[in-house]
Fold each of these.
Amino acid sequence: MALTNRQIQLAARPKGLPRESDFALVTTEVPALQDGQFLVRINYISVDPYMRGLMNEGRSYANHFNVGDVVLGGAAGTIIGSRHRDYAVGETVLGFWGWQEYAVSDGGGVHRFDPSIAPLSTSLGVLGMPGLTAYFGLLDIGRPRAGETVFISGAAGAVGSVAGQIAKIMGCRVAGSAGSAEKVAFLKTIGFDAAFNYKGVTEYPAALQEACPAGIDVYFDNVGGVLTDAVFTQINPEARIVLCGQIDQYNALTPPQGPRLLWHLIAKRARAEGFLVFQFASRYEEGQRAMARWMAEGRLTWRETIVDGLENTPKAFIGLFKGENVGKSLVRIAEPGG
Ligand code: NAP
Ligand code: FER
């Protein structure tokens, strides 16, 4: 008897902040496996800010979702059936399977994850794409030196919380901003030297000066907007600005017009550099090994916000733009091993 699969499709291109009505839950049957295929029971679905951009009309059809497509994104699961000679039942795997409960795969783009290293959920968080973003963005683009001050916006999220801890491991003074008192308290528990709730801030330069009295040497920017404008006024000579994300703009209907502060980069001989985690694909193992070691040593911890049930995936995704998550936001479809 065929298994029933539930999937979430894009029902309409979101305008501004996505709404739950932009998504539709559909029921299909899992197709019978062909030779060279395996069947994955999805355990965790990752919701990530970059997915918002893929929901807009794209210049190409290659990456962007169309209305009626299953929303794609990273997921982790367990193989429950296989007609593939390299993949066996019981293996835990990662793939770009998106918002559904089961996936049929031929192994393309699939990575194995060894659950004896850490729980499977970490394959989508601290040991997955967001953690690698923090690792390579901070170390390769930011190049922090011991004793320097690192400031991180969006600090309590999946990327920011890992970047901050790695900066501490590098011997830096670390400060960050996040959107609630609870998140500020969380940042203190993971070693941030200073943190503030940006939602209560009226005078940004003053808040930054209090958090970073010696100025800012490395700025790891997840957010953009007026906070980033203010950071430009607080950077030290030869500062490095790591442009990781600009979530403040992802739902904007028109590009925002900000103050023009690039002069500060000239005056401070500073460097601002954007990057995409994918450019470091050939070095992912290096990053995972280093972070797994720090986790085993108790120097790197991680936090997850998990909701249960495929039907709650749109809400979890929208929650990213409302600050509902602390650490990595995940949807649990089925407990691994369950
Ligand atoms: P995340 O930080 O776990 O979740 C998003 C967080 O952003 C929310 O919890 C919210 O926290 C904050 N936020 C949402 N709207 C905001 C706004 N208008 N102003 C300020 N803060 C806002 O997400 P993540 O996966 O770690 O990603 C963080 C950033 O890194 C995103 O910009 C993402 O696009 C970027 N990223 C880049 C790459 C790359 O390759 N360059 C890879 C992964 C992620 P608050 O409560 O603090 O508002
Ligand atoms: C992200 C924001 C943007 C991200 C990727 C992108 C993986 C990619 C943008 C592009 O390819 O144009 O958070 O995370």
Amino acid sequence: MQTSTTQTRQTRTTCCYCGVGCGMLVQTESTGEHIRIKSVQGDPDHPANMGQLCSKGSTLGLTAQPHLYEQSRAKFPELRRHKDSPRKRVSWDQACETVAQRFAEIIAEHGPDSVGLYVSGQLLTEDYYVFNKLAKGLIGTNNIDTNSRLCMSSAVAGYKQSFGADAPPCSYTDIEQAATIFITGSNTAYAHPILFRRIEAARQKNPALKLIVVDPRRTDTASMADLFLQILPGTDVALYHGMLHIMLWEGWIAQPYIDTHTEGFAALKTLIRDYTPKAVAEICGITEADLTEAARLFACSPATLSLYCQGLNQSSSGTDKNTALINLHLACAQLGKPGAGPFSLTGQPNAMGGREVGGLANLLSAHRDMKNPEHRQEVADLWGIPTVPALPGLTAIPMFEALAAGTLKAIWIVCTNPAQSLPDQTMVHAALAGAEFVVVQDAYAHTATTAYADVLLPATTWAEKEGTVTNSERRISRVRAALPAFAESRNDWEIALDVARRLETLMHAGSQSIWHSLFNFTDAQSVWEEHRATTRKRDLDITGLSYQILEQQGPQQWPYPQGASTGTTRLYTDGLFVTPSQRARFTAAPYRATSERTDARYPIGLTTGRLRDQWHGMSRTGTLARLQAHAPSPSVDISPLDARRLSLTDGELVYVTSRRGVQILPVRMTDSIRPSQAFIAMHWGAECVSGHAGKSVARGVNSLTIAAIDPVSEQPELKFAAVKITKANLPWYLYAFAWMPADQAVRLQIELRELFDQASFVTATIFGRDEMTSKNGQMETGLSLTMANTEAFSEALLRQIQLIFNAYTTGEQSSLSFRDSRHNSQRDLSITHTQTEKYISSVLLTGAGKDVAAEVWLRNYLENQKDITALGRRLLMPGHIPPEPMLARGRMICNCFNISEDTIRAHLALAPTLEKDLALQSLQTSLSCGTSCGSCLPEIKAMIASNVH
Ligand code: SF4
């Protein structure tokens, strides 16, 4: 469609969040020089999602609105000349030259292994390729690792150990062909929502399809299971060995397959003798009957598909967990056929692409092994250099430990936020603070990590980049630019290229011999074509594929060798594997407990995981008010039994203390968790929640987690830490909330971080509805700050907060104020006047905790923009009961239609005896909830189930 001034365009691209890799259609509208995203829809032709998008994907366009980018994006390169001076804007030339020179100096003085690159599973394959070549080909170090180390390196190690290659054998279509789906260590409903939609659809089509879920928490995924095994954390290996023990005893194994296609079964058979049902049920905390039923459903089903993720990988025995699960598939011949196989779900959008280019400290291009001299020579020959380094590189945790120890001098961090996401944040922050030279390349300017950058390099992000990604099912999709680069940002591979060319000139300076640049790339396609050449005759051979084929035929699964006309749906269909004997390998590894155990001092096992609507450190999703609505503030989840034992009420503040740190949080009681266990979402980092306890600085959930790693995969144990939970007893509270102009709220939330060290507990988040217009016609977003402290808040702090919360008022305003110096309490309200009404636009409450808590009804008035004309000065009376009951907005369940938990419960209460399917239908017809992206469906169904008796 075209008018004289406005043009619309549609761009086919890929979601930048999880490893499902959904295709999307982005509609942009341009007028003159201005271009904006009008809508984002699922691509009906993409085989991963067939038109669907989840709550995160469907709101990607909203996260890219100019007013949000203005507040959050890195706009231009910045440089600080001295550690204690602020960064200043510089040109790209100055920034890249500084990075190249400092790296060259440090390499010349301390050797190539004195520098490191820490990159990301969110980079495109082309970005990854250039960074990997820069480290291993030019600098001559294997010190390049990625945040994918935190999410799937155990899966890589498991596949390589069992099959001889890092190749997930399955496809998403196996979901529709499976007779049993075994989800283990994955909250698929939250982490891979569109796959969960496919599971729901498959079950609807085939009611005989069995769903088994294994998880220490009763997640939304678990609530849909036919059989739920709520195992104790970290006991997965014992569970799988116990299942195999039963399968052997019952004769449910596939002996001909074992004899023909595998090796090492005798040793495993000996090992699992000890894993009797009784012993395993005790270790795992489940019943023998459930264990037996799981073994039967797994082994006797015509096709069993395992889906697994961080619950297996983020563990100090992550590789053993992966191989023990694969053992079950091999023993029952549950792979290489439709609907069957061990299918690792990748957390990030391009963790697979990173593996393909060898962008990890222990890998080389195209799944080659860095330890293998022939592989090293092959890569050196492909790159036209004498050798690639043989010394193993530093993986994520050792890299930051080396930085802390001073043996690693300089680090270049790309598209990731280790000062939020790595375990043991005290160590990580000390490492970054003490490093000689820190380069941070990111699209977002205000992550916890950018604070440490000596050089900040602004990068492009989703909807601005060109290249490819590979999803969990080995499918390569094109990523295309719908928008121009924001401000002065550049593509990640181009930044790497610029620095690499300068660095190679510096490194060759003084050399008499003729040298040729390793970096003669002209565009993303030329990078990809060099990567393609490295895959020839490898298990992931894509020599038959091209950008043109991806353009014409859409996303394709590897391998796609020369001569092929289509990609490969399923691997190992012939029972031949990539090991020297072509047989798959059984691994006989005994069950090992978590690296840290609970004891009398730290009696509670803490686990971490995802929220439904947030992504990683929230640098993007945290800027969108509607994505905060499902889980508006941080909490630690504990069982009602533990809450009673500790005399805690819902929302009460507690110290969560591990051997590494402390974080104060409100408790949330939930029966989804077993007694003596706790859960904190992985997203809550120093950007949103902080405080101090004595000398210790709290930096969110990873203040508590442990840096212990798996000995093979070197993946850290983010899923388990021993903690204690104790009442915080903080007498003084501060609660401020306000409507802010939408183009200021995120910036002010960032500004509030300056105050985070002034209380024992602090959290600041945004709330509201995006593109919400207030009664005076302005687009507004809510900003909320909660603080709690051992001492009353100082006048100076209150003034600072008032300045931030009252700085942005529009239209006619009045204010109400009440101070009680005897009780150190204060109440300030700003009132906005329209022609006919008055409503509350900001509130600041301080005082004793229980008094402040009693005033939350003011938040309901503010959020609902309720007319307060009739309340008059009663608004200032402490302990005043609002004159009319008002339904709290509560937690939002359906984000698409803005339907809260309370509204759904109220609707269900109207017809409590309605049968489940009819209750869902009634909700969908009356409120529309669950009829768009579907991310809320598991929770709505669980609410219906708890309502119907
Ligand atoms: Fe994106 Fe959601 Fe699809 Fe994952 S499931 S790729 S987050 S739309």
